[in-house]
Write a structure and sequence with these properties.
12% of the residues lie in helices and 46% in strands. It is mainly beta. Strands 3-2-6-9-10-5-4 form a seven-stranded antiparallel sheet. It has a three-stranded antiparallel sheet with strand order 1-11-12, with no helix packed on it. Strands 7-8 form a two-stranded antiparallel ribbon. The relative contact order is 0.23. Bound molecules: flavin mononucleotide (FMN). The site of flavin mononucleotide has 17 residues, from strand 3 and strand 5.
């Protein structure tokens, strides 16, 4: 019996897991940087911890290993264009994206998102071709609205 599955099979299977969509952001010396991430989860209540998985090949991978703080914006349903823009290469990902600065950790946050989290990097764990970044949530705020969803490589809306 052979062990393991192909990456194609794994990718296809996991595409069936519906998720929300976040933008993970940091304040770099040259300005704000960020990327779209759906591999995001809450981890612990006490202390409040979240995780985000960052691909080792991603251009921002090494940055998130050195920056002390990062922001997470959980996107609203009308923000699919932002999710798309923040996953593209060689574009200004912040073009026409409304920003605000987090009052606690001075991280950039996406205006109009459902939730803003300001996090301090607590631990980083290598995990295959990704790194799991654990962040302690220093501040959280949420607003009314409906979430952007991602399922089988397509953005969608919550039906209810
Ligand atoms: C819906 C969606 C979810 C994504 N989730 C993640 C994720 O959780 N982790 C990650 O490292 N990249 C994720 N990506 C890919 C990144 O947004 C980005 O495209 C990738 O890091 C390559 O960036 P680079 O061009 O800066 O290297 C996702 C992309 C999309 C469209």
């Amino acid at each position: 019996m052979s062990e393991g599955i192909s990456s194609t099979k794994f990718r296809e299977s996991m595409a069936h897991f519906a998720s929300g969509v976040t933008i993970v952001t940091m304040r770099a010396p040259e300005g704000p940087v960020g990327f779209t991430a759906s591999a995001f989860s809450s981890v612990s209540l006490e202390p409040p911890l979240v995780l985000v998985c960052v691909g080792r090949q991603a251009s921002l991978h090494d940055r998130i290993l050195v920056h002390e703080h990062f922001g997470v914006s959980i996107l609203a349903e009308e923000q699919a264009w932002i999710a798309s823009q923040f996953s593209q290469k060689k574009v200004d990902r912040f073009h026409e994206v409304p920003l605000r600065e987090g009052p606690h950790a001075a991280v950039p946050l996406i205006d109009g998102a459902l939730v803003h989290l300001e996090c301090r990097c607590q631990q980083r764990h290598p995990a295959g071709d990704h790194t799991i970044v654990l962040g302690q949530v220093l501040h959280a705020s949420s607003s009314q609205g409906r979430p952007l969803l991602h399922y089988r490589r397509t953005f969608g809306k919550f039906a209810q």
